[in-house]
Design a protein that fits this description.
The chain has 224 residues and is α/β, with parallel strands linked by helices. It is built from seven helices and ten strands. β1 and β2 (20-31) form a beta hairpin. The structure holds adenosine-5'-triphosphate and magnesium ion.
């Protein structure tokens, strides 16, 4: 362990021509195998931070490194995002007119050539998240918790090194939230996947190895 997976150096993110400073000179590293939680009040910059760490957004200033290599271009990011990073969002972001299986298969296009292998892997992942009886349901036919399970299976489709989850239980009731967190923890522990979760929930933060506190775009305390 102790190997740096993703590092940010002096990252700032400005909006509206600099009027809004969403992130202010952030330097941090996520180590391989860690479970890190990111907490802070609404508007403090958590999602912006996650989006920059995962290449969904670009910083105004500063550098991002993946396994100690500086990410220089869009091509670098496309490569890393498609093969090394999984995402789980608060609103699930599934395609409603596609089945659970198809949603999980989509990220494998361009990575896994055989359609048979894609189907096999998607089936295996959906069984793993407890959805073996929902494989051919459209996502619009699934409950919120089931949709989030599909999203988690999808995030695992290319066996990523790291999973980023932005308030993954924000749209779920407390019982369903617990089962989703248990599932993410299980994946983290069993498969040694690095996990970074943005959360408002202290119980979830307590389960993590390390909590990063964000306030007004700055890190105020990196330890839990
Ligand atoms: N695309 C954008 N254009 C302008 N301002 C933005 C944009 N995205 C975010 N911001 C601003 O940047 C700041 C940080 O936003 P961010 O979404 O990262 O907060 P957050 O901590 O995730 O909040 P929440 O807990 O409500 O999700 C906020 O003041 C927000 O209004
Ligand atoms: Mg947010």
């Amino acid at each position: 362990m102790n190997k740096e997976l993703i590092s940010l150096k002096n990252i700032s993110k400005l909006y509206n021509g600099g009027q809004i400073k969403a992130l202010d000179n952030i330097t941090l590293s996520i180590l391989q195998g860690e479970f890190v939680s990111i907490v802070g009040p609404s508007g403090s910059g958590k999602s912006t931070l996650l989006n920059i760490m995962s290449g969904l957004d670009k910083p105004t200033k500063g550098e991002v490194f993946f396994k100690n290599n500086k990410i220089n271009s869009n091509k670098d990011w496309i490569d890393i995002r498609s093969k090394k990073i999984g995402f789980v969002f608060q609103k699930f972001n599934l395609l409603p007119t596609f089945t659970a299986l198809e949603n999980v298969e989509i990220p494998m296009f361009g990575v896994v050539n055989s359609s048979k292998k894609r189907r096999l892997k998607a089936t295996e992942l959906l069984c793993q998240v407890g959805l073996k009886d929902r494989l051919n349901h459209y996502s619009s036919e699934l409950s919120g918790g089931e949709q989030q399970r599909v999203a988690i299976a999808r995030s695992l489709s290319n066996s990523p090194d790291i999973i980023f989850a932005d308030e993954p239980t924000g749209n779920l009731d407390s019982e369903t939230s617990k089962s989703i967190i248990r599932l993410l923890l299980d994946i983290h522990l069993k498969f040694n996947r690095t996990l970074v979760i943005v959360t408002h929930n202290n119980e979830i933060a307590k389960l993590s190895n390390r909590t990063i506190h964000i306030l007004d775009g700055e890190i105020v305390n990196k330890s839990s």
